[in-house]
Amino acid sequence: MRKVVWTINFLSTPTITRHCKNCNRDMEFSCSERFRINAQGKYLDVWLIYNCKKCKTSWNSTIFSRVHTNKMDQELLALFQNNDPMLARQYGSDRTILNQNGVTLRRVEYEILGERFELDEPVILEIQSDFPLKIKLFNLLKAKLDLSTSELKQFLKEGAIQGAAVNCFKKKVHESTTIIFNQTEELIDS
């Protein structure tokens, strides 16, 4: 059985929805991938900066608040100071932090890298992502395999596609997901 790896490549940080003071309504905000750091005495505040897509008004998503300078990892602080894009994407995709800031993750632009395969061949497919996606595994498979909803449902019904859990196809994509296509008897016996 051949192993195929697909990697989710994020083209941008997810956009969010929040109230824009200038537009006076809920608007879509995009991540600037830049941090703001404020030092008050021995304490630091760190924010990730977002901008309204319509009027460009900025809003700061709190990452750290009132952290003592001795408690802040110096390497992490250097990444904040240098506006590290991977760190910005990490915090910009962190649902916990965004929920704490009272915003909703809206959408993310991504591409699926990895080879296609014939749907009748036995394959162990591993899907890897740096961050959890807010997209169902079912929809991701449809897009990459270029299948209609009914075609993919038929493959599932026939048992040609199997996931780690019964309902995994209704769940969102996590950092690593494994799916088996056309499981052979040798794999079952081993």
From TrEMBL:
Tree of life domain: Bacteria
InterPro entries to which the protein is assigned, alphabetical: DUF1062
Pfam families: DUF1062
Protein name in UniProt: DUF1062 domain-containing protein
Originating organism: Enterococcus malodoratus ATCC 43197
